Every structure is written in C-alpha cells, then in structure tokens.
C-alpha cells in the first residue's frame, strides 16, 4: 500500500490523482489532502478519503472528527507528513517551489506536476534532491513520455529530446486574430481539459517553453539537445532520439491519468481505463515547426532559461501576473508577451542562490508587469 500526500487536491491534476486512487484502492491510500479555495469540493474529498491531515486556505469549512486540520496560505506544508511514501505536488504557480523544497528537506519522494518549481529553481531543487537522495518523477505528459522512452532512467544517454505541443487554442489564429483574442477563446483547448492558468500558457506556448527548461533539469542536459514540435493530434506525447538515429515515442489518447498513475506505480503498469490507440482509425499524425512570429513567448521563455540565474524566475513571475490580468480582461492576449518582455528588459540579473533570491525576483517581475499596464 503506497501512502500519498496530495498537495493541490481540488485542481485538475489533484482530482485525477484521486480518480487513480479510487481505481486502485487496494494499492493506494490518501494520508493527507491540501487545497486552496474550493471549499465545497475539498469537504467532499475529506469526507470520502478520511486523511490524517487536511489543509485549506480558509478556516471556514466543515470539519470531520479524526482529521487534523490546518489553515492559511502556506498550510499545505502541514500536509507533508512523515506517514507519506510519496508527495504529489499539484499546486499551480511559484508557490509550488515552497512545497518542493519542503518535501525534499523532509526526505520524501515527489511526483511532480508543478513545473514552475523547476523553471524558477531547477538548480536548487535538483542539487538538494541529489543531496537528500529524493526521487523526482514527472507527472507532465510530455516529461512522462520522455521518461518512459528512456526506460525510466534519467541517466540514459540520448541525442535529442523532442517535446510535442498541440499548439493550444490559437494554433490556427492569424496574427490579426490574436490581437482581439479573449480569455474565453483561449480557454477552449482543442485536446485537453485543464485548469485556466495552464490552458492560457498552452495558448501562448509559454507552457512549452517551461517544459524545455524542465527538461534541461530533469535530464541534466543542454538546451541545444531539446527541440519543440507542433503535433496537433496529441497522440505522441514526446520523443527521444538516440545516437544511432532511432527515435522512440510514447503514444496514447490524450489523458493525464496515464502519466499520473505511472508516476505512482512505475515500473509496474496497471489498468488505466484508457482505450489503446486505434491506428486504423487515425487519419494522420501531423508535425510542424513552431511559429515564433505568432507565438513569440516560446522563444522569450527558452531564452530566459538559457540566460539562467534569476531570469527564469522573472519570466515565470511576469507570466503569472500577465495571465492573471488577461483572465481578468485587463489586458489583451498580446499583452502577455508585452508584460513578460518588459519585466525581462528591466531586470539586471542575479544569482539563484536560495529561495529568498527567487522570491525577490518573482516580486520584481510581478511589480514590473503591473507598472507596465498601470494596474
């Protein structure tokens, strides 16, 4: 029985983690749950899974006898308990790195869905994980696909990693159409059902830029060995090219439950209630290079990753703030690029030496974006 601490239980990933636990209740036990603001769903989850510890931001929730509660913005750290065998980190945004560093310091293995923690603090996270002997396995479908193609061996040699991208909601929009695109339009992802923040990041291709930075850290490689390609169908979830010219891909119909479940069961594979790909019915599998003119955020993010230091923390913080303003209708779609670009231009650099340095860079970026748009 594997005991799971789930940080971010009411979000898209968190809900699917619980679906996996229900499917294989003989193999998994939820020992702690942590959520943000979705009180009603959180109460239902606590009632169903009866964890030892439950945390949520607001104390205004119905409580169940026998469950230890904790409240506040950073109460999720109280859900990282000794009884857990693995901690699933499904938080969205910069705050995920607080959870990641805390889990590593407590010596617990991580199933990671929070990509921002590796984007902003990859060097700190991977160094500390190595020192503490903590395993970090990916939940992202793209990085799970690479991990599977490498036979679950992060140290296996390869020639190139190829990250696939659906292209997001605006993959067929012209530059003129993008100028008037709304948040409602951007949230209509053609292939995936995800939270609002990541869906917007898919529309800008910021998400793919983040995954490039993640890959640099997860697989201890250089940026020149990571490619991005648009694959509209989202059947191939990523590929690995080897020195002999062979390329291995992981394929399945779009679902997050497969990589979530595999992160918890590897190297064993269990039924995932997912139908196998019917190749006879596939009309085509298409590929194309990213259009950097229509989606300049991709290059902006990757370039920040190459600059290193605190630049990735700035690009992440600026993006989070700009996406928030876009979702609130205060800026247009192209304003996301403008906000990120402005923050990067104003930043003078720095060393990602500790959490405090990352936090200061994050605050700088958010302030720069707000100032740019006068909010």
Description:
The chain has 375 residues and is α/β, with parallel strands linked by helices. The chain contains 14 helices and eleven strands. Strand 10 and strand 11 form a beta hairpin. Helix 3 (96-105) runs parallel beside helix 4 (116-132), helix 4 (116-132) packs parallel to helix 9 and helix 13 packs across helix 14. The longest helix has 19 residues, at 355-373. The N and C termini lie far apart (50 Å).
Report Rg.
20 Å
Note poorly predicted spans: none
Shape category: globular
Global mean pLDDT: 95
The helix/strand order is: EHEHEEEHEHEHEHHHHEEEHHHHH
The helix/strand class is alpha/beta
Count the beta strands.
Answer: 11
Labels describing this entry:
375 residues, seven-stranded parallel beta sheet, alpha/beta, single chain, globular, four-stranded mixed beta sheet, 42% helix
SSE layout:
Elements (H helix, E strand, L loop, with lengths): L1 E6 L4 H12 L4 E7 L4 H11 L3 E4 L11 E4 L14 E4 L6 H10 L3 E4 L3 H17 L3 E3 L2 H9 L10 E6 L9 H5 L3 H4 L9 H9 L1 H13 L7 E5 L5 E6 L5 E5 L5 H9 L31 H11 L3 H17 L6 H13 L8 H19 L2
Parallel strand pairs: 1-2, 1-5, 2-3, 3-4, 5-6, 6-7, 8-9
Antiparallel strand pairs: 8-10, 10-11
Short recap of the structure:
The protein has 14 helices and 11 strands. The strands form 2 sheets. A 7-stranded parallel sheet has the order 4-3-2-1-5-6-7, with helices on both faces. The protein has a 4-stranded mixed sheet with strand order 9-8-10-11, covered by helices on one side. A hairpin with a 5-residue loop joins β10 and β11.
